[in-house]
Design goal:
The complex is a heterodimer of chains A (480) and B (439). By secondary structure, chain A is of the alpha+beta class. Chain A has helices spanning 2-12, 71-91, 121-135, 203-207, 210-225, 241-253, 258-261, 331-337, 370-375, 426-429; strands at 20-36, 39-40, 43-57, 60-66, 105-109, 141-159, 164-182, 185-191, 233-239, 291-293, 316-320, 323-324, 345-346, 355-356, 361-363, 379-391, 397-409, 412-417, 421-425, 433-436, 443-452, 457-465, 468-476. In chain A, strands 1, 2, 3, 4, 5, 6, 7 and 8 form an 8-stranded mixed beta sheet that branches. The mean pLDDT of chain A is 97. The model of chain B has no long low-confidence stretch (mean pLDDT 97). In chain B, helix 1 (3-14) crosses helix 2 and helix 3 (121-131) runs parallel beside helix 4 (190-207). In chain B, strands 1, 2, 3, 4, 5, 6 and 7 form a 7-stranded mixed beta sheet that branches. Classes of the chains: A alpha+beta (480), B alpha+beta (439). At the A-B interface, strand 2, strand 3, strand 4, helix 2 and helix 3 of A face strand 1, strand 2, strand 3, helix 2 and helix 3 of B.
Chain lengths: 480, 439
């Protein structure tokens, strides 16, 4: 952050003459270690450093991004932003005077218990080798891998109104995968953090039980090989948090994004079945459905103090008791739509302008544990760990697949079923929500590959959810 | 960053190597303008100047990889690159021998440029907005220079650069009633853009008809090249890379084992001869002009990157296991006769959000999107509300494939996740006796 502060201070001495400007500096560091089939893959170190200048002038707005963070480089980026602001002032969708201004001054830093460097590279590789040995249960495991990645993102936002927000996010991502094959049937299981990401340091390795989970991951992949296909039927469905993450993401998070509702994304990511008139009255789901935008949950992927335009982060209800309350979108989209919103205008890096994104979108817990949910099911399927996702451009008709299914009969879990999937329509699916697990079942997770935007942007998104029970869902298995 | 600046930087790094060290340098640079449009007005417009250096440091049988952003200012960039090199040296001490390390041992040079000069983006956007007056146009303009290079202490000097534009847009009537357009390439011609915009006005006219809701079931269909491109994009996810095949993870596993096949007329190739992507790998290998992946409907070969090639004893023929210049052989159907041949069924202009429903059986799910119509007795009757399909490519490209069009369409990727993509696909349309719609 010290380097970013120096760059920002230099920029302040040459701040552009305009109505409003921001400078967003981003520095990222990556480290990736992986052992596959007992062989150490090439270690990868990466560093990223660049700047985005946003400039508002004469009713127009323009963006200039550069990896040249010298004074001359930032001056050139500012000129480019000014050129585009001039074009925008003539051909823009809106008068840039409604662009949000920030004078917020705040700091955020991920609390870390164990620093990435507190463990030597050799010890990390030894750990991954041990996990590899534990994954190779028999010769039907045809591919297997364990990894450990670190990402640090330091961002400094300074603004023409005196705003200054520094945020440093730390992530350590462990993970495992085992691939089992017999004949023409192949099954994959992931585990130990592969789909369970949070902020934090090396303490994440113990939290996700990297070594301890390996035998279970491999054993389940093997068992799935000989399991029957998931039945094709209308049944009750219990989704574990590892799949609820995707369900919330695709059929609540995306449809509520204001830029979709405003039409910005219609050429690529799509629009939304949600329209402005629905807020405050539309029944999105059963009364058990409560969904929040919550950037304050400790260690959740997108927790922080502001979004990327300097809007202070605050918890908001999006859906309360099943009724739609508020969309996802920053002050610019709020002004365009005449609706309230959230502090969730974010960019994937220094080279992309912020757009409306999800932050942490959480399904609030209900009551009881997983056994209580299972006990309510006479004939159903439990599904675990997303493996396939597809939804229409209005975020309505979806089909999701999971790595593992388990039959439920007369309130008890039965055997595994392979290639489980289910289909539904967002506008009606959430109304079949019949059970929501309690606080003790809540898992704080997220996804690390949420893509949208033109030019394209991929960002982290946090999701916390308990297991949930849905009535009468169309489920199916594999095969042609 | 241009070729000379990159090669000079690589030479300076090579001069700092010690002992038996070998260094491969890679460069990805971009000077781009992006303009996104909504309602035929500018939503966001900006400029990106970026350059990223990738280093692979090798000593004997050990290797480590790293990357960093560069500014374009030589002395500053040398300092950053030296810092990265120093970090890699520190890491190299801790990694064991890599049995799958491979790189080209022969010095080699190449240089290629596509396009002379990208058009002025502000001028192009101005003429687009004027041409599309009164239309609800949404989309993205991307243009500028892209450079990619590889240099090594072995003696490699490869460079590929292009100056191009990519206008990817759709015009909307209401809700999800819309038609899709694209105009991309290396020579901007405003008249071509105006013609395509006018053609979309006609498409919107068709969209104005009342939309038809169809029930789940199996429907006769024609998939236009853009729709087929979505299926090919998904098939490229594990379909052709050697590692996926050798570890039984490919969705074409049954084909590779001779249990299933596409129709005899289906041939799929990686067509590097198109010359739109770099013709070299990060390890300095040249990429052959053409790799046959599927021939006569059956499995033929894989894309082999340097690491997989070493692991499985195959010759390197690709920079990665995913195609960047895919081509599907044409057939004999005249595109102009497709509606008549379809007779009654679906004319599918685009698909969207495809994913594996069951990769073991090459089964894909996805959605119709943009420009999809119901056809009766060879005439377009009405647009169709979006529908989900769930079907196996062994059917759509196999026993239910009635034919491929004689004409193929070159589709330049509009993807910009890791910078502006240079990928492309050359595809025909396909006529199928049935596609299974499920929702």
């Amino acid at each position: 952050m010290e380097r970013l502060s120096e760059i920002a201070d230099r920029f302040l001495t040459q701040a552009p003459a305009c109505d409003y400007w921001t400078l967003r500096l981003v520095e990222e560091d990556f480290d990736h270690l992986e052992v596959r089939q007992g062989v150490v893959e090439p270690s990868r170190l990466a560093s990223v450093l660049g700047a985005m200048v946003t400039l508002v002038k004469g009713g127009g707005i323009g963006y200039g991004a550069t990896s040249d963070i010298s004074p001359a480089g930032l001056r050139a980026a500012t000129r480019r932003a000014a050129d585009w602001a001039e074009v925008h002032s003539r051909l823009g969708l809106f008068d840039a005077d409604i662009f949000p201004r920030s004078s917020t001054r705040a700091d955020y830093r991920t609390p870390i218990q164990e620093a990435w460097v507190s463990m030597s590279v050799s010890d990390k590789l030894d750990l991954l080798q041990a996990a590899n040995r534990a994954l190779r249960l028999d010769e039907r495991i045809v591919d297997w891998s364990a990894w450990l990645s670190r990402r640090r993102v330091a961002q400094l936002l300074v603004t023409g109104d005196g705003g200054r927000v520094s945020q440093v996010w730390d992530f350590v991502h462990p993970g495992l995968v085992a691939v089992a094959n017999a004949g023409s049937q192949t099954q994959r299981r992931h585990g130990a953090g592969a789909d369970w990401a949070q902020q934090g340091g090396l303490e994440r390795v113990a939290a996700v039980r990297l070594l301890e989970e390996a035998p279970r991951v491999a054993s389940e992949a093997l068992t799935l090989l000989d399991s029957p296909e998931c039945p094709q039927d209308i049944r009750d469905l219990i989704l574990l948090p590892s799949q609820m993450v995707l369900q919330v993401h695709e059929s609540i998070g995306h449809p509520l994004e204001l830029d979709r509702i405003l039409g910005d994304e219609r050429n690529y990511a799509g629009t939304s079945f949600v329209t402005p008139g629905m807020f405050g009255r539309y029944r999105y789901g059963s009364e058990l459905l409560n969904v929040t935008f919550d950037p304050t949950v400790p260690l959740e992927l997108v927790s922080g103090v502001t979004d990327d335009e300097g809007t202070p982060a605050r918890r908001e209800y999006l859906i309360r008791d099943g009724i739609l309350e508020r969309p996802l979108g920053g002050p610019l989209s709020q002004a365009r739509a005449g609706l309230p919103g959230t502090a969730s205008t974010r960019a994937s890096g220094w080279d992309r302008p912020p757009i409306d994104r999800m932050g942490n979108i959480n399904l609030e817990p209900g009551e009881g544990n997983l056994a209580d949910l299972i006990a309510q099911v006479e004939r159903g399927v439990l599904m675990d760990t997303n493996r396939s996702w597809s939804i229409d451009d209005s975020r309505n008709k979806f089909q999701f697949g999971c790595e593992l299914g388990r039959l439920i009969e007369d309130g008890e879990l039965r055997g595994l079923v392979r290639n489980p999937g289910y289909r539904g329509i967002s506008a009606t699916f959430w109304r079949s929500l019949h059970g929501v697990g309690g606080l003790e079942t809540l898992e704080v997770r997220g996804v690390r590959n949420c893509g949208k935007g033109e030019p394209n942007q991929s960002v982290y998104v946090g999701h916390a959810a308990p297991p949930c029970l849905f009535r009468d869902v169309s489920v199916f298995g594999g095969g042609e | 960053m241009n070729a000379d600046a990159f090669f000079t930087l690589a030479d300076r790094l090579n001069a700092r190597l010690t002992g038996a060290e070998v260094l491969f340098c890679g460069m990805s640079s971009e000077v781009s303008d992006f303009v996104r449009l909504n309602r035929n007005r500018i939503r966001q417009a900006g400029h990106v100047h970026s350059a990223a250096l990738a280093l692979t440091l090798i000593e004997g049988t050990r290797q480590v990889e790293g990357s960093c952003d560069l500014s374009g200012e030589p002395s500053h960039d040398l300092t950053r690159a030296q810092q990265l090199l120093s970090s890699l040296r520190g890491r190299l001490r801790h990694v064991p021998a890599d049995p799958y390390l491979d790189y080209c041992r022969e010095p080699d040079e190449s240089w290629r440029r596509c396009g002379d000069r990208a058009p002025d983006p502000a001028e192009a956007i101005g003429s687009l907005v004027q041409a599309a007056a009164g239309m609800d146009l949404v989309g993205i303009w991307a243009s500028g220079d892209i450079g990619e290079g590889v240099a090594s202490s072995v003696g490699h000097r490869h460079w590929h650069e292009s100056a191009s534009f990519n206008l990817d847009w759709s015009c909307h009537l209401e809700a999800d009633k819309a038609v899709k357009g694209a105009y991309s390439g290396f020579q901007w011609n405003p008249e071509v853009m105006r013609q395509r915009v006018e053609a979309m006005r006609e498409g919107i006219g068709l969209m104005a008809r009342p939309a038809r809701t169809i029930e789940p079931g199996r429907y006769r269909a024609y998939l236009a090249p853009s729709a087929l491109n979505e299926l090919m994009d998904l098939l490229s996810w594990g379909g052709f890379d050697l590692k996926s095949h050798r570890t039984s993870q490919t969705p074409l596993l049954r084909m590779a084992r001779g249990e299933r096949a596409f129709a005899p007329g289906v041939g799929i190739h990686e067509e590097h001869e198109r010359g739109l992507v770099a013709g070299f790998t990060p390890e300095g290998f040249r990429i052959p002009p053409r790799v046959t992946l599927v021939e006569g409907g059956g499995f033929s070969g894989c894309l082999v990157d340097a690491r997989a090639g070493k692991e499985y004893g195959e010759v390197v023929n690709a920079a990665s296991g995913s195609p960047s210049s895919l081509g599907l052989d044409n057939g004999t159907l005249e595109t102009g006769n497709v509606l008549g041949l379809l007779d009654t069924g679906l004319w599918i202009g685009n698909l969207w959000y495809c994913n594996w429903s069951d990769p073991n059986d090459c089964r894909v799910t996805g959605m119709t999107r943009f420009g999809t119509y119901w056809v009766e007795r060879g005439e377009i009757v009405s647009p169709v509300r979006v529908m989900r399909f769930d079907d196996s490519l062994y059917h759509l490209l196999g026993d239910r494939l009635e034919g491929l069009t004689r004409e193929r369409e070159l589709i330049l990727s509009a993807q910009t996740y890791e910078g502006r993509s240079t990928d492309s696909a050359l595809l025909p349309g396909i006529l199928v006796s049935g596609i299974d719609l499920t929702l």
